[in-house]
Amino acid sequence: MPLQIRRGTDAERQTLATAPQAGELIWITDQAKLYVGDGTTLLNALEPVTGFNAEDAQDAVGNMLVAGPNTGITFAYNDGANTISATVSPPQLLQNLDLNSYNITGSGGLDITGNSTIGGNLTVTGKIVADYTGSVFGDDSSILVNAVDSAINLNGTIKDNVIPDATNTRNVGAPGTTFANVYAGDGVWIGGAKMANNGGAIELPAGSTVGGLTLGGVAEPGSNVNANIIGDDSSLIINTSTNSGIFNTVTANQVVGDFKGSLYGDDSSVMVDAIDRKIVAANIYGDLRGSVFGDDSSAIIDSTSGTVHGNVINDSVTTNNIIINSDLAAGGLFLETEGDGEDDYDLFTFKAYNTGADAPAQQVVKTRGTKASPAAIQNGDGIFRIAYMGYGTGAESSIGVAVVVDAEADGAIAVNQVPGRYIVRTADAAGALQTAVTFNSKQETVFGGPAQLKSLSTTERNALTAVNGQIIYNTTDSKIQAYAGSTWVNLH
Fold first, then answer.
1. DSSP letters for 97-160
2. H or E element, residue 61
3. Cis preceding-peptide flag for 69 (omega within 30 of 0)
4. How far apart are CA 42 and CA 15, in angstroms?
5. What confidence tier does 318 reach under pLDDT thresholds 50, 70, 90?
6. Mean pLDDT throughout 211-233?
7. CB-based burial label for 401 (10 Å; 0-12, 13-18, 19+)
């Protein structure tokens, strides 16, 4: 009898949830295909061992074409009609195109957005309509248009007339942008008048004028002027026959320019001797302008910069106030000396002579506001600072502050009342300023560090002319002692 194996339709094969046993045979009745199970793969994923027909081949090829990958072309598979249709997209280059010594020919155009590089000549039989960037060269390799300097080179390349597009509307050069020289062979025409070459000279047409005066008269360019000069009152100013000038007065406020000759006063005395090059006048009145130079040609007074360069030597200054560089934004008063140690005593010296007991005073006044509108200072404002500094190395940039003495406001400010404090600050080993001692407006002395008393032995102490209130450290007794009631008392 015939052997009948497991069977079913293709729809049942697609939905079978259990994998066939290894070696199990399954026959698909509506497709006449035989499958062999492997024990793990579902039936809908197995490949048939028999029954692969033309339809299966068409489906496989159609699905393969549709799945791709495809570039520039797509496929559609119609299983019922057994047809495959293709759609081609607009062509695009996916890599460089090598013409392989062949040409691209045809009617139409090229539409290229990016840059193009052409190694050989570009021959165009029609017009080039486009913006152009780059230089233009002649057949002899000379630059006609220089794209680097944005310039058109006309040197040696003009072979015909240069004609404007409209008469009397175009210029060569401009008021702010002029040519250095203009060269012409025969002449230059201005309207109907021609300036011609006359053997190295300029020949002007008849009737030419200078300042409204017709040439060819007295003031002829290039010639000497031989004529008297008459003033508005018909008086003779320049006499050519006697080679002299007759000037009664000079009414100008200033005479600017070089002056040659001596100057005389109304009494005919010599004021400036041009022969001996000296000023003879006893006094000079009026404003003097100009620089003053020494015998070695060095500038003593520079009239251009408005500065005095020479040394000022004077035993006395007879003025009530001396203001030096009142604008502190530009700097202050700077004193500098170089010499031996004795300069420590004479760098800056005040001397005061009076018959009374009053001492000379050095005043420092601090205000807020401006010179035109001063304002009261405030509590805590600095009034004056003295800074003692020294070089840390051989360079000026190494200067460090060693001791600072500050005078400051210390309390409420009122009319004629400015409470003050005096602070001495010293730099520590790291160069930072620390308060050493403060004398405040309450007449209190506040030490910034430990206060060390004068150390004396008993013998040295007894040699003192003691007064009540003195405090010392007795090195003999190792005691701090105070003098009170005519005796020294131990404080501990």
1. ---TT-----SS-----S----SS----SS---S---S-EE-TTS-EEEETTTTEE--TTT--S
2. helix 54-67
3. yes
4. 9
5. low
6. 63
7. middle
Which amino acid is residue 476, in one-letter code? T
Q: What is the pLDDT of residue 466?
A: 93
- In the prediction, which pLDDT does 186 show? 77
For the entire predicted model, the pTM comes to: 0.40
Q: Which amino acid is at 421?
A: R
Cα–Cα distances (Å) from 428 to 300, 402, 435, 438, in that order, read 47, 8, 10, 17
Give the closest residue to 209 by CA, choosing from 226, 193, 188: 193
What's the mean pLDDT in 160-170? Answer: 80
Query: Which residues are registered as beta bridge partners of 307?
Result: 302
Q: Which domains does the chain have, with CATH numbers?
A: 6-88 (2.10.10.30), 362-451 (no CATH), 452-492 (no CATH)
Tokens of residue 20, six digits: 């066939």
Pairing verdict, β 455-456 and 471-474: parallel
Q: Is residue 13 within 8 Å of residue 43, measured between CB atoms?
A: yes
